[in-house]
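We read letters as residues; the fold follows as tokens. Both lines appear below.
***
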Amino acid sequence: NLTCANILGWVGYTLLDDVYDDERSFTHVPSIHYAVTQTRVLLLESAFTEHARNYIHRTLADTHDTLEKERRERRRSIEDHAFLIPEHLEPLQTHTSLHKKSFGHALGPLLILLRAEYEHHSPEFTATEHFFRTYLTARQLNDDAHDVCTDLERGHISSTVAMLLMQFIKEHPERHSIHTVNDMPLLKQIFWTKCIGRLSKDILVLCENARNHLAMIPLNDPTYFISLIEPLEHAARKALSERDATLRFLAIYNHPTP
């Protein structure tokens, strides 16, 4: 049941996110309704306490509310490849809510712990919650970094796009709009020289925290969970290396040796 719930939940909420990206994709709606409904049913069938059932309802409600808030507050209308920069860009120093879009992935392991008689306030349960929060936040940041150009073209103010626009406004306070074609070279330059470093370091810190929480979870073999973290660490270190190479090239290009 939990395996099916995880698969159906991933399908349902991925399709829902796609609909929010392209509101013309109404053909997905019946599939979304079926997948999300069955996810809830299967999870609740696996919950044998009132606390577990309430936890499931609360987690799925948080996921839906987070996606709906994104649709309402983080989608800008595009006209002739341009959109207005939001007047108030939400500071994202802590990335505290990014995991909520996909925290349903944690429900299976958490329900297994409850069935194994670990209390919801036990160190093991809390460590599992924290592992998924930090891992899923790092994964979301990684995804947002890879999608930054696509998100800009759609007028989607992701965590990474918000960071980029804040830096853009700092350097160009006279600007109030973005042209997703004409401004793209400048935006890419700002992203690679000013944003990717902080973003990659944030991901590495989150991955380190996830590893620390993982060590407190009662697992015979944590290999699978480590395999979730390692690609994010590799991508972050690669991005930092490429950023450093770009900065070195620009330094030589702008200040050639006589």
